[in-house]
Amino acid sequence: MAIRESGEDYLETILLLHNKTGFVRSVDIASELGYSKPSISRAVGILKADGYITVDKGGQIILTDSGKAKAEQVYGRHVLLKGFLNEILGVSEENAEQDACRIEHILSEETYSKLKEFTETYKKN
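Given the sequence above, the corresponding structure tokens read:
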């Protein structure tokens, strides 16, 4: 099932929160993203139904294998794009962060691969 941009943002946030604290609940996501609890609840329901997360009896949100793979893919794109924009092009940290958040969702696999290749070559030289 194709995942929407907002779903990718939620997965990325869950991954980052889990890496930071080891435990993620809906309230943590709401706090991190600044969204309402009903919005988070709806998103969690969709991600759960699509098989990207599970929620245990204590309310802990856990990425499934496919959820973790998707979250890592999105975060990897984000890191690459932010680094390219900031370190190579000289875009400010703030704008690089914001632009990377937008671009990461629409970048084709071909463009991502070429950008990654270019960035690696650039950093070696």
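The chain has a mean pLDDT of 94. Try to locate this feature in the token string yourself.
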